[in-house]
Design the sequence.
């Protein structure tokens, strides 16, 4: 029975309050005893879920990490997604490993571009979404305006489950439709400390709106929600603890248990007769004292036991997994068993890569983890030329993690790195220096984009002969056409109809 697992992610625009909400969910779930508020001064307790130095400086979640907590007999696996738009690839892959998501929206700003982009990814996989309208203790937009915007922009049915009693300076609490109680703020900080009032005297205009909200929008329908057609909407303030408990309870009650995962034509269900899973993320140097690398595996089926042998599809020979890790906030615990829906951290020295399938019989291949063509290409130049070997090792590591892509030109010595967004370049330089002691500069590259090329041998050989100076290999050894402009890509596609030039590469 795996119905006691809930594996979910939180998606939002930067600054909508995702990190604070993550902290409060962990706190309410008992996983951490002190939520390190992101803006905390003095001792500067940085948010627990934000790992690397650059994140602490910028206050955004750059790496997706995993937090596991238990509450009322249910195990929650919360996958943190990088909130910044430049990390769409890493975020995309993380969303392939979850069964549902919470969408956080700022009450003053409504749906922002990044939220929409992440929502589209969820829609591709029909991931069910619960909406949390955050920061209602501050001035925000009218409730109906927010609800209608979600419905219109995302083409979803919305079903409000709560209603804020005033916002900003007039905020008096939040009415929970199910219990009919109002959760109210207490003390000088106006936080929610557990006080619920059953016979709250609602102001007349609010009472009318509540009635409208309950009549004017569809009732919650479990099937429509699980198909990704309807979203229940909760209101609250993560900072002041409003709505957090209701959110955890909604995930426990409504969010789907582990779902079957696509493997080519078939779907592998949780009760499949062997242990299977796929690597959706690799993270190097989680512990700076040890050059460790951890591959994150989403378990799809079977009961995993420590020491078990699994075969990675990229390697072909079985590997014994002696020290798997389950994640409890920042403390790593060695796990003895894991069930479908769980995320297992597997320490390794570069044998496991994003997109690998792990299984007992090596007959399953999970599909749907893409690489995207980079939109920014740069050359890497070393400040100290004697460190070539260290640079190659660092670039290999970081490309394995999916932070960057590396291209090795067929002619000329300078390696080219490709990224989807600018911030990844800052992360690269910062990590080269901090983790690998390599000082490097990025220089302009003559290329604007890259395409993976496929075709029959003869056509490929012909193409290579004429375009050698524009060709490179990626780290899998696949041939890549480095284009100077989008026009260049179109020109080559017309000239070589027997070849395919692809902007994504499925692992």
Sequence:
């Amino acid at each position: 029975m795996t119905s006691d697992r809930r594996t979910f992610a939180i998606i939002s625009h930067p600054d909508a309050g995702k990190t604070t909400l993550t902290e409060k969910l962990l706190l309410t779930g008992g996983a951490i005893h002190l939520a390190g508020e992101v803006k905390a001064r003095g001792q500067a307790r940085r948010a627990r879920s934000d790992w690397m130095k650059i994140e602490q400086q910028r206050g955004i979640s750059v790496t997706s990490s995993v937090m596991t907590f238990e509450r009322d007999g249910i195990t929650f696996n919360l996958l943190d997604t990088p909130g910044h738009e430049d990390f769409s690839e890493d975020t995309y892959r993380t969303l392939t490993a979850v069964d549902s998501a919470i969408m956080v929206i700022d009450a003053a700003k409504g749906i922002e571009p990044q939220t929409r982009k992440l929502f589209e990814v969820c829609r591709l996989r029909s991931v069910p979404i619960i909406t949390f309208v955050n920061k209602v203790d501050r001035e925000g937009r009218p409730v109906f305006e927010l609800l209608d915007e979600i419905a219109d922009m995302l083409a979803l049915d919305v079903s409000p489950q709560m209603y804020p009693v005033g916002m900003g300076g007039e905020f008096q609490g939040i009415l929970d439709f199910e219990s009919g109680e109002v959760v109210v703020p207490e003390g000088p900080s106006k936080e929610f400390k557990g006080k619920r009032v059953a016979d709250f005297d609602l102001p007349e205009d609010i009472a009318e709106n509540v009635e409208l909200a309950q009549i004017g929008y569809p009732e919650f329908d479990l099937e429509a929600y699980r198909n990704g057609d309807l979203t229940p909407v909760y209101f609250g303030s993560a900072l002041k603890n409003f709505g957090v408990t209701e959110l955890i309870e909604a995930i426990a009650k409504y969010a789907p248990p582990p779902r079957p995962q696509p493997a080519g034509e078939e779907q592998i269900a949780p009760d499949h007769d062997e242990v299977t899973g796929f690597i959706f993320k690799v993270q190097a140097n989680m512990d700076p004292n040890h050059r460790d690398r951890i591959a994150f595996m989403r378990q799809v089926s079977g009961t995993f036991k420590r020491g078990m042998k699994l075969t990675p599809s990229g390697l072909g020979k079985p590997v014994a997994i002696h020290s798997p890790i389950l994640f409890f906030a920042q403390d790593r615990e060695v796990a003895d068993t894991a069930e479908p829906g769980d995320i297992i951290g597997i320490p390794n020295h570069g044998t496991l890569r994003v997109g690998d399938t792990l299984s007992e019989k090596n007959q399953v291949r999970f599909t749907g983890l893409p690489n995207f063509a980079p939109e920014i290409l740069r050359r890497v130049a070393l400040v100290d030329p004697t460190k070539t070997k260290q640079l190659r090792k660092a670039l290999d590591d970081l490309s394995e993690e999916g932070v960057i892509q590396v291209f090795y030109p067929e002619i000329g010595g300078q390696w080219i790195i490709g990224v989807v967004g600018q911030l990844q370049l800052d992360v690269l330089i910062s990590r080269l220096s901090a983790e690998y002691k390599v000082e490097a500069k990025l220089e302009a590259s003559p290329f604007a984009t890259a395409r993976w090329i496929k075709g029959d041998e003869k056509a490929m050989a012909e193409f290579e002969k004429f375009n050698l100076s524009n060709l490179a290999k990626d780290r899998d050894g696949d041939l890549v056409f480095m284009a100077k402009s989008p026009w260049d890509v179109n020109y080559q596609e017309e000239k070589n109809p027997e070849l395919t030039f692809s902007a994504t590469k499925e692992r």
